[in-house]
Structure prediction request, 135 residues.
Amino acid sequence: MTDSDQRKQVVCYWWYMAEESLASARREFEAEAYIFAINRLYYALFYAVSATLLERKQHFKKHTGVRASFHRELIKTGLLEIRWAKLYDQLFEDRQEGDYIALMSFDRNYVENKLDQCIEFLNDLRPLLKSLNEV
Prediction:
């Protein structure tokens, strides 16, 4: 297997993880587990962005590296709208607060809005991933 083939497989794996995280977020939302829904929404974006960056031969070991490269490679270049950077950053912060701040909670309407935005984000990001059509 070539490096290119292996990279394509990993890109597809990260995209699969993004879709699974989004599905998990829906289930958590329906169960009114809003902190867990926010966590899964963030990971849906994280995995999708990681797939997109890996397709461009970039990979990172830390969330902050993915976040910085997302802004640099996909937002500042105009491949994606600035609103997606704001969504990613907000969910990054929300996930941190939900995971690490005691007694944190999120409003149902807020989470529902983020869920809808994440669905749209993945729909906008998917066309940038040629590997998804090649495997």
In short: The chain has a mean pLDDT of 94. Residues 3-30 form the longest helix (28 residues). The chain has six helices and no strands.
